[in-house]
Amino acid sequence: MKHSSFSNDLLVEQEVGRFLDTYLYDQLSNEYDLQYRRINDEHSQHKGVDIQMTTKNPQILLNIDEKTATHYFKNNISNRGLNTFAMELWYKKDGKEKSGWLFNDKYCDTNAYLFSWGWTKNEITNWKDIKFENIIQIESVLVLKKDLYALLDNNYSINKSNHLEVSSEVRNNIDNYQLKGQKYYVKETGGPYWFKSKPENYAEEPLNVLLLKNQLISISKLHAVVSPYKYKFTIRQKEK
I need a labelling partner for 23 at 20 to 30 A (CA). Which of 84, 139, 142, 187 fits? Predict the structure, then answer.
């Protein structure tokens, strides 16, 4: 049965947002004198802005789109979790092909992403049951959109101008790999790889390029691991 998990995703994202407000953004505000506010109006959210953060010296306004791998939260803190994050290039809706969130003009206000991975208490076995009180840890990286675009263009020749053409070519070939249980690597035989969801799992059949967590950490402005009990921040050198 084809379906969309949008409503469930939204509820879980709200729980994750509450956790991030409490244990990430509040701590950042205290430690580094940053100002933030969560955006609740639908117009801004539909344009890809979940958080507005203002930095000082230099003063920069970040319009942050929060992206969290909620479907892949782990319920064992000893499990290192995903080492990738999915960047959506393409999907279809009502029979029409659409640009994914990565290059979609609809999200033009976004200038930064917060990519997050999480862990819950042991008893949580379904991502739909994620709540503020059963999240025990979240790892996040703050990446500027321009830095992400540069990574994709400079290393893999994927950009806003050609992403639909690239997506079409990948969709013509990817089934041969996925049916065999093989990864369809973007470049050579390692690193980032393509993944297309099955129609029985997601009605939109999104096509994603999965970037490695270490790649995102390397271009991030912030790498954070937060929990109700402790937090660790790594701030990257400011741009000159």
Answer: 84
CB burial of residue 222 (10 Å; 0-12, 13-18, 19+): buried
| Distance set, CA 143 to CA 176, 220, 227, 230 (Å) | 33, 5, 21, 22
Start-to-end CA distance of the chain, whole Å, equals 52
Question: Do residues 192 and 156 make contact, with C-beta atoms less than 8 angstroms apart?
Answer: yes
Cα 212 to Cα 237: distance, rounded to the nearest angstrom: 21
The burial class, CB within 10 Å (0-12 / 13-18 / 19+), for 176 is exposed
Half-sphere exposure (Cβ direction) of 50: Cα atoms closer than 13 Å:
18
Give the closest residue to 152 by CA, choosing from 140, 160, 164: 160
The predicted-structure confidence for 10-43, as pLDDT tens digits, reads as follows: 999 999 999 999 999 999 999 988 999 999 888 8
Residue of 104, 97, 115, 67 whose CA lies nearest to 223: 115
